[in-house]
Amino acid sequence: MELDPVIHAPTRLQIVSVLAAAEEAEFGFVRDTLGVSDSVLSKHASALETAGYVRIRKGYVGKRPRTWFSLTEQGRSAFADYVRNLQKIVSPSGLTVLPG
Amino acid sequence: MELDPVIHAPTRLQIVSVLAAAEEAEFGFVRDTLGVSDSVLSKHASALETAGYVRIRKGYVGKRPRTWFSLTEQGRSAFADYVRNLQKIVSPSGLTVLPG
DNA sequence: TCATGTACTTTCCACTAGGGAAAGTACTTT
DNA sequence: AAAGTACTTTCCCTAGTGGAAAGTACATGA
């Protein structure tokens, strides 16, 4: 019933959730989606990379540098575990809020 | 999409989840269920009370003092909001916090 | 060519929350 | 009187967060 602290921090939970929904996402897209500053996103992305959860790919669009993030397999399974653990914690309450 | 920080802290999330599943719970039951120390539970329970989410009732069992916790209406709705917000964050991934 | 701009990254800083340990409180029991 | 129960509070210390600002590397505009 441990909630992985690397994922649990709100900003990182949002990053991981965004990445879980896509194959790859641009730095700017994630930053704007979450409404965080460059430095905050950069730092959290590095933390996730260090944990082995996120892959950071650098490339170019035209001649301008660009950064993309994606979840590693490890990141995907850590996220799935995290959500499962959340369910275990929350579900005894019998709440019936459903997605959608 | 804000995750109420009072509820988000892992230990408090667990406390609130336990209380959401019951009408009232004893101090010792919650402490043992979560596997935390007296001082940790006491501090988090106070924090939840200060936030208006938990009611702390003191009484006796025989001649021994005992403490019970319960969610206030405000606490129940804050928890429901919290879970709804979690679901919004997580759902694009196709996973769900509350299977139904 | 020099200044500015883009796209981040890193450093600095100031704060705060969270846990463990230990001491404190108010009884009750032995 | 000493010890135990059931917590509460204090003390201390560390790690985590965000914002601001400076740094890096390359590209472009005047």
Automatic annotation (TrEMBL), chains A, B:
Domain of life: Bacteria
Domain Winged helix DNA-binding: 12-90
One Pfam family here: HTH_34
Name this polypeptide is given: MarR family transcriptional regulator
Organism (species): Planotetraspora phitsanulokensis
